């Protein structure tokens, strides 16, 4: 899935595949949660903006999360939006298409993030 996304957004580069052993959220494979996840960086995000951020942090570029069903992907996006409302530092762009959730760094401009939205439309 990431290959299809990065073919349309050339500034994205794969940084990792989340496994049960390295998942910082401990959600991989749990009921209602993502069944696979990859993280990526984006060269539009300035290194100075993400100093100290973990290598797989969404703020460095983003993540693609795959769910068993569309309702689980929507629920995850709603959860993330709720967190961002109470803590604006955690804000991000979230695009749900079918069972796929594409999460994109808040450091991208709306125009840059729109490229991910367009690319995400072809994933779900």
Describe the structure.
The protein has 3 helices and 5 strands. With 124 residues, it is α+β, with helices and mostly antiparallel strands. Strand 4 (93-97) and strand 5 (100-104) form a beta hairpin. The model has no long low-confidence stretch (mean pLDDT 94).
Secondary structure blueprint with pairings:
Elements: H1 2-8, E1 12-17, E2 36-42, E3 61-66, H2 70-86, E4 93-97, E5 100-104, H3 110-120
Antiparallel strand pairs: 1-2, 2-3, 3-5, 4-5
Helix pairs in contact: 1-3
Task: Give a count of the beta strands, DSSP E runs of length 2 or more.
Answer: 5
Q: What is the N-to-C succession of helices and strands?
A: HEEEHEEH
**Largest sheet: spatial strand order:** 1-2-3-5-4
**How much strand?**
15-25%
Q: Number of DSSP helices?
A: 3
The radius of gyration computed from the alpha-carbon positions, rounded to a whole number of angstroms, is: 13 Å
Measured as a percent range, the helix fraction is: 25-40%
Overall geometric form:
globular
Low-confidence stretches: none
The rounded distance between the terminal residues' Cα atoms is 10 Å
State mean pLDDT (0 to 100 scale).
Answer: 94
Structural class computed from helices and strand pairing: alpha+beta
How would you sum up the major sheet? 5 strands, antiparallel
């Amino acid at each position: 899935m990431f290959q299809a996304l990065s073919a349309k957004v050339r500034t994205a580069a794969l940084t990792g595949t989340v496994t049960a052993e390295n998942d910082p959220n401990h959600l991989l494979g749990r009921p209602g949660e993502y069944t696979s996840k990859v993280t990526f960086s984006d060269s539009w995000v300035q290194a100075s903006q993400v100093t100290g951020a973990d290598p797989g942090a969404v703020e460095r570029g983003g993540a693609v999360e795959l769910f068993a069903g569309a309702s689980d992907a929507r629920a995850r996006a709603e959860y993330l939006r709720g967190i961002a409302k109470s803590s604006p530092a955690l804000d991000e762009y979230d695009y749900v298409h079918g069972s796929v959730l594409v999460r994109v760094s808040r450091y991208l401009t709306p125009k840059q993030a729109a490229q991910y939205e367009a690319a995400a439309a072809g994933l779900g």
